[in-house]
Amino acid sequence: MNLAGVKVLVDAFNLQLTKGTGIKTYGLSLLEALDRLGAKVDILLSRSGYKNNEILDEIFFFDNQGGRQDWPSLAKWLLKSASPFYRAKRRKSFAGLVVKKGQYTEDFLKYATSFSMPYCYDLANGLYDRLRLTTSINVEEKVDIWHATYPLPMQVRGAKKITTVHDLIPLRLPYATLDGKKIFYNKIKDTLKESAVTITVSEHSKQDILTYYDVDPAKVIVTYQPIALKPLEATDAEIARFLRRYSLKYQNYILFVGAIEPKKNVGRLIDAYASIDTDMPLVIVGKKGWLWEDELGKAQFLSDDKESTKKVKLLEYVTMESLRYLFSGAYCLVFPSLYEGFGLPPLEAMNFGCPVITSNVSCLPEICGDAALYADPYSVKDITKQLETLLGDRDLRQSLVEAGRLNAERFSMENYIKRLHYAYRTALDV
After folding, report:
1. Which residues, 6+ apart, have CB-to-CB distance to 428 below 8 Å?
2. Which of 45, 85, 208, 259 has the CA that lies 20 to 30 A from 234?
3. Domains in the chain with CATH codes
4. Tens digit of pLDDT for each residue in 286-302?
């Protein structure tokens, strides 16, 4: 089972971001899996450089870069992309002048000499949003498969296209996202037509795709996702020592991990937390998203109540290393999301021996199996009930720890590689 000799180009729209996103995590796992399958893997960067000066080229490449979506830029892009002489070119090695430590990960730097086409994603998305045109580009070396890790209106000439569609949340919960719904709907529709294979991350997401679009079910392949966080080799005492930097005690806090936005349902979680009898703090790990003030606003009442022992602690961004300790040291994870395509945080928690309370909707029962407690995410009363049950039963907690570790094994890198190999072989045979 291998992809030896297969040349794969993966989009770097999220991979080149300095901070993590769910799709970036997915992309890094994809690169690792393809590498282990023996494929020749490159990524397509969209960062600009300065071709006439090597020093400025490196400085520009690692600078913060904005997008270009004005009409003159789009018109120029349309003309250039149609030319056989305009190609994504492989970048040269850098001299090492820019200090990258702490800003860019080794995962990204490993591929920094891959292909580059400045601003290609901003321009392709801008052109699609205005004219519903998919951009076809040339690459100076042969590419067998072009893998877009999310729906991108771009095609590589001469390559089979694989696209990962993670979820249809903007169509299922239109009131919970900011996406332009018509553009999103059409982009998925066109992506399904253009792709030799569409990968998705759960059977539930596949059923959503088949419900909304007329597509051959055999061309929509479920690979799930692997657990990306590496195992933590630390004693309980070492975990407890690490947690002190956040003023937390071992197995004495309730954890939430995810973006702070309506679909993650943090507001109802805070309501449930406020109604239980505990002095454990609620630790929220995630960046502030759309309408975050509405979601976190209720936490202010707890802060204003001088007699309350409850505390809500927000950690807006933590490193992957810190996240491993936070999972390992928590009493439990509560993840009451309204909708997910996959739902990685509950699986990550299980992998680190952290019991899980999650929603009984979308893909979450499929992913978490019998290793979690489930609540109706629209019912504060039900979330409260499950919290009280778990906080009051140490034996139940231990049984969930053991069941969670077993469940997490279903989503190993080895199992992901098998599913991914099947998807790629299917695409190559189309």
Report:
1. 6, 144, 145, 160
2. 259
3. 7-226+413-429 (3.40.50.2000), 236-410 (3.40.50.2000)
4. 988 776 777 777 676 66
